[in-house]
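Q: Sequence in, structure out?
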Amino acid sequence: MAKTKNAIRPLHDKILIKRDEAETKTTSGIYLPESSKDKPKTGIVEAVGDGALNTETGSRIPLTVKKGDRVIFSSYSGTEVKLEGTDLLIMSEDDILAVID
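A: Exactly. Output:
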């Protein structure tokens, strides 16, 4: 994510994700109307926070995902935000189910 005047920096165990684009046609070639498109449950990590706070030691617990990872997340997870015309999701690391290699 390029540095802009309105950049978002996630805090603690939060992660900023750019959701993949919804499919516009099926594998058989049928074009889908906007209302029937499912929101993809995959995306690219754009930014990560500095980790959750360990309350016993006061140190940060590092996140397991990093910028650039392609991830799968829960259907209704995260908070949708719009930054300079781009739709993004902010969610906790707990909402991420897997990293796609």
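The longest strand covers residues 42-48.
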